[in-house]
Write a structure and sequence with these properties.
2 helices, 74% helix, transmembrane, membrane
């Protein structure tokens, strides 16, 4: 017997990509405009998008 197909809302589908885009944009602006601690904050924000991508690839369902 087939499992029922789960329907996702638009917000559920685009919540993570919007968050990743916002963090990336913040990281770019912080790294470009700030010095010292802002560089570190920018690097961490940009690294979060890489970490999210690696996590998604590692936990991907086939």
């Amino acid at each position: 017997m087939k499992k029922p197909v789960q329907q996702f809302t638009l917000w559920q589908v685009f919540r993570a990509p919007i968050l990743i885009a916002a963090l990336s944009l913040f990281g770019l602006v912080a790294a470009l405009l700030g010095d010292g601690a802002w560089d570190v904050v920018g690097e961490l924000a940009l690294a979060s998008s890489v970490a999210a991508t690696l996590w998604a690839l590692a936990t991907r369902r086939r």
